[in-house]
Design goal:
The complex is a heterotetramer of chains A (about 350), B (about 180), C (about 170) and D (about 400). Chain A is mainly α. Chain A has one domain. Chain A is built from 13 helices and no strands. In chain A, helix 4 runs antiparallel to helix 5 and helix 9 runs antiparallel to helix 13. The longest helix of chain A has about 30 residues. With about 180 residues, chain B is of the alpha+beta class. Chain B contains 6 helices and 9 strands. A 3-stranded mixed sheet of chain B has the order 1-8-9, with no helix packed on it. In chain B, strands 2-7 form a two-stranded antiparallel sheet. In chain B, strands 3-6 form a two-stranded antiparallel ribbon. The longest helix of chain B has 17 residues. Chain D folds into 2 domains: about 45 residues, no CATH class; about 350 residues, Orthogonal Bundle (Cytochrome-c3 Hydrogenase, chain B), CATH 1.10.645. Chain D contains 18 helices and 8 strands. In chain D, helix 3 runs antiparallel to helix 4, helix 4 packs antiparallel against helix 5 and helix 6 packs antiparallel against helix 7. The longest helix of chain D is centred in the first third of the chain and has 30 residues. The two termini of chain D are about 35 Å apart. In chain D, about 60% of the residues are buried. The chains are: A mainly alpha (about 350), B alpha+beta (about 180), C alpha/beta (about 170), D mainly alpha (about 400). At the B-D interface, helix 1, helix 2, helix 4 and strand 8 of B face helix 3, helix 6, helix 7, helix 12 and helix 14 of D.
Chain lengths: ~350, ~180, ~170, ~400
């Protein structure tokens, strides 16, 4: 390999990390989704929502201004915390949520750092690691409210993880692949996943609401009893990162949902290996679908109060688990009869 | 009267709640005022900052006596640097003595706008205004001198759109441009 | 049920204000208080509205205002149970700096929490404001004031408010 | 859920020492506490004991009022009960009127009831909104506070102030109905009736709300009576008691209204009863505006003391100014008590006069103070997440309890 291709290769990888699935995209997505959430809630609640930062575009830069504020705030690390865990945990939480994005393709010719036929598995593994750091955050803070928040996170994590995995497994059974791109191509040739297995789609939606802490499952951060839940002791950029992580997770989940259930880049089916037709056009379609899913989920904030912990855990072990098992059975039946 | 409690079945409940939320999402019912780009023109009996009519006031101290937070103090009727008592209003004879030399001054840091002083005044000498949103930069501005107190309060946000509130069947309160 | 007769049976010291449907029972002997209260409760007065004191130069009057939720006839009636206790003489002490500290001892009356549990918070309030120790109260602590107010009894008439000496503007 | 402890003696004897329990200090600077502190002993997720520590906003209203002229207590009692100003004002003035022996004219009585009912609606909406934010529903919070606005506008139109109206004075009221008030009130009432249906869909019958509130924080009828709780909370437990019916004041003896009661006494009933009372208040306001008699709005004893300038103002602007009597009021020696049904419950006033220019003893008890037993008794045995539910459902307002 000559020196020039090596440099190009490195530049391409850097672009991946920084721009496309990477940090810049994440920042834009988080800024937009927070703005969208606040605007949707404001519309239902008879008010304006964020307005005064960049009034001409409806206050869209408000979240950016908040980020700047977090960046310049004083970092306070309480004395009794476990310092390394306290500092590292929010960053790792954010990092794993972001790295998972690398394995989620948005186009038929999307190549990642590690090309693989097991992208579904990789992304799921990384997504599932994230809540462990949430528990670390609660443990490291040495605060009773954070501690209770972490316990709640643990309870919910255990009770909603199995339904989540089962709902994905049922789609894997139908598509007979561990690769998102193959799964999408399967759907393009037949039917979108939400029609093939609506039970799995419903399970996935509920799990998405729960894992990303949207209402009515905003239990770990229930501010009327737990102040700020896990992030009670945090300040400045650490808090900002912690606050942004659920939105990154939300983006991950929405991408997975649109790939597995909404037909990915359907109706775009042109199969050409070209940056525009292979990546940008399908990418736009997938991201738009993901944003619609996110908008639906953040809209729930305007309708629901939150459930209690025991109610959420109970429904997780009963209804949602049942639903996911049924979805697996449905998949098996479909595969037996359709193929 | 007692109502038997019927919990709504969950499916209908969720659907109705979501539908109602969605209805307000596509058909917003905005009630807030874009303050300070729009400001209210308040009704004439609104209790805002007030000042005193120097010609009418007889210096009887009733307002000082009734003031619940003790915000009103009677001061000598003095205006200007030299500390001279200002001349009597036009067409009246200068009267020496306490009767015409005391005047009320309100400490805005204490005033609660109950208007007991305005109502107790036997000659109706207070001039109420509808200005209510003033901010003071300095602590001393809360306690104006008599000369400063006589100036009517300046309305902030002069360039803002003046609106009046109106009861509305659809939105509860609607804001219309003031006449 | 004629409420006037029933009440006069319980106590002879009955002050009646017919116009406002207000009744007041004056108790002269502290030992009788709980018995009277019990018989009033049996009439149907089931909760305490307020417990308070009134401070006089030489005595303190403790008043329980009771009312009824359960009896239809008594719902519109206010009944006050009043008991007066003599205040002990205040003790004056001079400390090392030469300041005179007035030690005003509290007075003691029987508590009616065992009869009407609804008075539990009101009695705590009367304790901290007037220095009335309710004998038999299960949880007689300060309710609103900080503990370092002990002994000042703010609602007694001889309480003087001392401004903090250091004042920072 | 473990067995609930209702006996005060048992409650005091629970041994809460040792490492078994987590002690949470909820408040005073906590989003779910208000200006108070709740010391909570937790066994796992179950509440074992709650000790309410109130007094963080104790404003010594009794002390202040005993050292001021009689009229000056009006703004003081108003500022204690900010969502409920008219009722505090009314209760105090009723007591002073009993001491003075003044009876206000019928039109003033009706105006008092009118403002009181408008205020009751705003108070209940305030309570529903706070309950909403305690359960995490920001929509209901915004809606309820937004829907207070038309009613506060009505108060502003009538009294010249939005919250702290100081509208009721001994002998009558300070302003008469302005022009166009009746039409505006009717529009607002129709709007509110329509909005109550929206509330029903998104809040009252929302399955999540029902799951959170039904059978949570139940206070049985006999316990409610024993603990002496007041207001809508009492009626939610099934006790038929309303000061407006049993100690009629203002124009309530002439008005026709129902007192809704519920059966179960749980948080959901306490939510429903507030909605029901808003409906009753709407009915009452319509009735008052229809029946309101013509006439003076101030008692003759006060009117005769007005000087010519004031009388001119009264005729032209329908505005009652204060004669010097208001400052130098010295009610004859004696004592009086009065009760008023405020939005959160019953206000009780006991005032002793010695014929001096200050009240000798000024005692008042606010509804929130009498609802304190909810914290010590009803929360025990519930989960931590139920504490905000119970707190929100009893519509507790810390500054009001502290006075």
């Amino acid at each position: 390999m000559g020196i020039i291709p090596l440099i190009l290769w490195l530049i391409q990888d850097l672009l991946y990390i920084i721009i496309f699935p990477g940090l810049v995209t994440i920042l834009v997505v988080v800024v937009i989704i927070i703005w969208l959430e606040r605007k949707i809630a404001a519309k239902v609640q008879m008010r304006f929502g964020p307005l005064w930062v960049s009034k001409k575009i409806g206050g869209a830069l408000q979240s950016l201004a908040d980020l700047l504020r977090y960046s310049f705030q004083e970092v306070i690390i309480p004395e009794k915390t476990d310092k390394w865990a306290f500092i590292l945990a929010p960053g790792l939480m954010f990092a794993f949520a972001t790295i998972a994005l690398i394995f989620i393709p948005v186009g038929p010719y999307y190549s990642v750092l590690f090309p693989s036929y097991y992208t579904i598995l990789f992304s799921l593994a990384l997504i599932i690691i994230t809540p462990i750091f949430a528990i670390t955050v609660g443990w490291a803070s040495d605060n009773k409210f954070s501690f209770i928040g972490a316990l709640r996170e643990g309870f919910l994590l255990i009770s909603y993880e199995i339904p989540f995995l089962l709902s994905v497994v049922s789609m894997v059974i139908i598509f007979h692949t561990y690769d998102y791109i193959n799964a999408v191509q399967n759907q393009l040739s037949f039917l979108p996943g939400i029609i093939l297995n609506p039970l799995a789609a419903l399970t996935m939606l509920i799990v998405m609401i729960r894992t990303t802490g949207r209402f009515p499952f905003d239990i770990t951060e229930a501010d009327s009893e737990l102040v700020m839940g896990l992030f009670t002791e945090y300040s400045a950029l650490f808090f900002g990162v912690g606050m942004a992580t659920p939105y990154v997770e939300l983006y991950n989940f929405s991408l997975i949902f649109s790939l597995l259930f909404l037909g990915g880049w359907w109706p775009f089916t042109l199969n050409v290996m070209n940056p525009v037709y292979g990546l940008i056009l399908p990418g736009i379609i997938v991201v738009v679908k993901a944003f619609i899913v996110m908008a639906v989920l953040v809209f729930l904030r305007a309708v629901y109060p939150r459930y209690r912990l025991d109610q959420a855990v109970r429904s997780g072990w009963s209804y949602v688990l049942l639903l996911s098992i049924l979805s697996v059975i449905l998949s098996v039946v479909e595969v037996m009869f359709l193929r | 009267m007692s109502e038997v409690r019927k919990p709504r079945d969950p499916l209908t409940g969720h659907v109705k709640a979501l539908a109602k939320g969605f209805k307000y999402l596509v058909e917003p019912n905005r009630m807030t005022l874009d303050y300070p780009a729009e400001t209210m023109k308040l009704p004439p009996n609104y209790r805002g900052f007030f000042t005193v009519d120097d010609k009418k006031c007889i210096g009887c101290s009733m307002c000082e006596m009734v003031c619940p937070p003790e915000a009103i103090t009677m001061v000598p009727r003095i205006i200007g640097e030299g500390g001279k008592t200002i001349p009597a209003p036009e067409g009246e004879k200068e009267v020496k003595g306490p009767k015409r030399t005391k005047r009320p001054v309100v400490n805005w840091g204490k005033c609660i706008f109950c208007y007991f002083c305005v109502d107790v005044c036997p000659v109706d000498a207070f001039i109420p205004t509808q200005v209510h949103d003033l901010a003071f930069e300095k602590d001393s501005e809360y306690r104006p001198s008599y000369e400063d107190y006589l100036k009517p309060p300046e309305e902030p946000y002069k360039n803002s759109k003046k609106v009046i509130s109106k009861a509305d069947l659809k939105r509860g309160v609607s804001y219309e441009p003031a006449p | 049920m004629n409420i006037k007769d029933e009440l006069s049976k319980i106590s002879t010291n009955l002050v009646i204000d017919e116009k406002r449907a207000n009744y007041k029972i004056i108790i002269d002997e502290p030992s009788k208080l709980i018995d009277v209260a019990n018989s009033i409760k049996n009439l149907g007065f089931d909760h305490v509205v307020s417990v308070t004191g009134v401070d006089y130069p030489d005595k303190i009057e403790v008043i329980w205002h009771v009312s009824s939720y359960s009896s239809e006839e008594l719902k519109g009636i206010d009944l006050a149970i009043s008991m007066t206790v003599k205040k002990p003489e205040p003790l004056k002490q001079t400390d090392a700096q030469g300041n005179i500290n007035v030690n005003r001892p509290p007075v003691t009356v029987p508590s009616l929490v065992s009869v009407w549990p609804s008075g539990i918070f009101s009695e705590r309030e009367a304790f901290e404001m007037f220095g009335i120790i309710f004998d038999g109260h299960p949880d007689l602590r300060y309710l609103m004031l900080p503990e370092d107010f002990y002994g000042t009894w703010p609602l007694r008439k001889d309480f003087t408010y001392q401004k903090p000496k250091v004042f920072i503007e | 859920m473990s067995e609930k402890v209702y006996n005060i003696d048992d409650l005091q004897n629970i041994n809460v020492e040792g490492e078994k329990y987590i002690i949470l200090q909820i408040g005073p600077s906590h989003p779910g506490s208000g200006h108070m502190r709740l010391k909570v002993w937790l066994d796992g997720d179950i509440i074992v004991k709650v000790d309410p520590d109130i007094g963080f906003v104790h404003r010594t209203s009794e002390w202040l009022s005993e050292r001021r002229e009689w009229i000056k207590a009006v703004p003081i009692v108003e500022r204690i009960m900010l969502p409920d100003t008219v009722h505090a004002n009314l209760a105090y003035v009723l007591t002073v009127e009993k001491l003075l022996g003044i009876e206000p004219p019928p039109r003033a009585q009706y105006l008092r009831s009118l403002v009181a009912e408008i205020n009751r609606i705003t108070s209940h909406l305030y309570g529903i909104g706070i309950f909403g934010i305690f359960l995490g529903s920001s929509t209901v919070y915004m809606w309820a506070f937004g829907d207070r606005e038309p009613f506060i506008d009505l108060m502003e139109m009538l009294t010249g102030a939005r919250i702290t109206t100081s509208y009721i004075i001994p002998g009558g009221v300070r302003w008469d109905l302005p022009n166009g008030f009746k039409e505006r009130a009717e529009t607002v009432l129709q709007y509110m009736e329509r909005r109550l249906k929206d509330y029903e869909d998104i809040w009252v019958k929302n399955p999540v709300v029902q799951a959170r509130t039904i059978n949570v924080g139940t206070l049985k009828k006999e316990d409610a009576i024993r603990l002496g709780v007041v207001g809508p909370n009492l009626r939610a437990s099934g006790v038929y008691y309303d000061t407006r019916k049993h100690h009629p004041y203002a124009a309530y003896s002439n008005l026709d209204f129902e007192v809704p009661t519920m059966k179960n006494g749980d948080s959901y009933d306490r939510l429903l009863i507030r909605v029901e009372e808003i409906k009753q208040s709407i009915k009452l306001i319509r009735q008052i505006l229809k029946d309101i008699p013509e006439g003076k709005i101030i008692a003759d004893q006060i009117y005769n003391q007005l000087n010519p300038v004031m009388k001119k103002n009264y005729e032209e602007k329908k505005r009652v100014m204060f004669p010097a009597f208001m400052i130098h009021m010295r009610p004859p020696a004696g004592e009086a008590s009065a009760k008023v049904e405020a939005g959160r419950g019953e206000i009780f006033f006991y005032i002793k006069s010695t014929g001096d220019k200050y009240p000798y003893r000024f005692r008042w008890v606010t509804p929130s103070f009498r609802n304190l037993p909810y914290f010590t008794h009803v929360t025990v045995g519930h989960r931590l997440a139920d504490l905000p539910t119970i707190y929100g459902s009893i519509d507790y307002f810390p500054p009001e309890a502290d006075r």
